[in-house]
Structures are given as C-alpha cells and as structure tokens.
Design brief:
This protein is an alpha+beta fold. It folds into 2 domains: 131 residues, Probable inorganic polyphosphate/atp-NAD kinase, domain 1 (Rossmann fold, 3-Layer(aba) Sandwich); 134 residues, Tumour Suppressor Smad4, CATH 2.60.200. The chain has 5 helices and 18 strands. The strands form 4 sheets. It has a 6-stranded antiparallel β-sheet. Strands 13-12-11-8-15-16 form a 6-stranded antiparallel β-sheet, with no helix packed on it. The chain has a 4-stranded parallel β-sheet with strand order 2-1-3-4, sandwiched between helices. Helix 1 links the parallel strand 1 and strand 2. The longest helix is centred in the first third of the chain and has 16 residues. The N and C termini lie far apart (57 Å).
Amino acid sequence: MTPAPGAPPPSRLRPGHPAPAGLAVAIVGPAEQPDVAAEARRLERLLADRGHTATARLSTRDAWGGGPAAANADLVVVLGGDGSILRTARWMGYEQAPVLGVNLGTLGFLAACAPAEADAALAAILSGRFRSVDHLMFECTVSRGGEVIQRELGLNETSILAGPPFSMIDIALHVDGELATTYRADGLIVSTPVGSTAYNLSAGGPIVRKDLDAFVFTPLNPHTLTNRTVVDSAGRGYELVVARPNAGSACVVDGRVVTGLVAGDRVSIRRAVPRFTLVETEHHGYYRTLREKLEWGGGLRGAGGRTGAA
C-alpha cells in the first residue's frame, strides 16, 4: 500500500458544535451478514430524514474495499465487529475519516456501540455531544535485498510468526539502528495501544490506554524467561531481522499474512502519518468498554449487586 497523494478534506464534525446540514456519511459493513444490510438501510433513512446524505458501501470480508471507503466522508459508520473496523481502517488507507462502530459482531472493543444505542449515538454526534479520539497507526515495510517488497498500513499489530516446522526462531530487534535484543521464541508481536487488547492480550501482554503513542513488544513463548513485554515510544524506528526463518515463517499485519520471510528480510515498523479516529459519545468511555468487554468487577458477574456468594 502506497500513500495516496494529498490529504482528505477535514471532517465538518466538530465536538461541541451541532453538525451542519448535508453531512456525508459512509456506512460500511460485511455484506454476507444478514442484519447488516437491513441496519444500513435503516440508518440511511434516519440520516436522510435529518438532512444528511448516507451511502452504504457493503462488501464481503474477503473482497473488502473497492474504491475509497471514505472519500469526502465526514463520518464513517461501521456495522460489524472489530474485524470490520480493522478492515475499514485499511480500506480508508491514508485518507482516514472519523469512525463510529456499531457492534454487530462479538467482542467489540472498537465497535463499542450496541445496535440499540445507534440512534442515540448518532443524535449525540449530530448535536456535537461527542469526543474524537485519535489512535496510533503504523507503517510496516518488508525489505529484501535492499528493496521494499511490501508496505502495509496497520492499526492493531505486526507479528512475526515462526510457522512450520514450528521450531523457535531468533528475532533481532533494532531500535533507531541499535541492537536492543534478540528474542528466541515462537514469534514476536509489535502492537499499538489499540491492538493491546487483541493478539497482544491473548499472549499475556499488557493493556495500554489506546490514545497513547507507544508500541508494545510481546514475545510468543520466549525461550529466555527474562524476555518480557517492553513498551517503548512510537517516536522511534524499529526493525526486526530473522536470520534463519523457518520454511513457514511469515510477517502478519492485523491478522493478514503480508509475506513469507526468507533469510535476511528486514521488517521495519514506524508511526504512520494518518491517525485512526474513533467517535465516542458520553456513554462509551474507555474504562466502561474495558469493564464490560473484559467483565471486570471482582467476579461478581450475575450477582445482582450482592457482595458475597449465597
């Protein structure tokens, strides 16, 4: 993926200010999910009744995209789960627009708005009662023989996976050109704060507040017990080198295999220029999302407010 020339026009949505008439809203989601098309039509009618223009851009998961997702859009409404939001962020590329995620999927850390709350959330946004929260995106480039063979824009993470025959590999991490360490492990996850609640969390990495500018390095099953997760500034340049990859070793960005790896490949990760922007209403704060999705609450789920077991 190469940067698109120019920059998109700024969204006319401004926190604290009612939306002007004639907003352009793009509605995207997985076409194969039955409830998505019906919800898209309903939201199109709702927005039209309020004097705005909504256009549905539904696509199958394996053919996501086709033309710009958010060309000249003031707001993108994503119907689906977090996977749909990740695909939409990639679809928008270097022309990111503010996103409201309506969770028609499963977990939904990013798509935090329930379908029953969609109308109220849109009403709040149109009246200016919302927050725009910017999130770190990254560029991952894979170089082979001194030439870039792959460039990807990502939101969650870059992963180096050992792959078949599933023996450990050595992954050298360089920070601003200096060797920091060599991981001997089944792989390495380089996560953004947004991605800290995804693959990184499953691998035992920390949760990092998603509006911070940092990268999280979490080794997968490291051979050396002193190899622990490291959090470092997104202002630095990072390079991963696998001297002897397995036959099935690969570089993966946001769950998609970017390329297989051969000896000498260099994987670079840097902060990207565009930012991913989520629109949040007063009912969808960061800690509320963590509390509900991770079932934080001292093990009292379903206790009906009681402080002890019966």
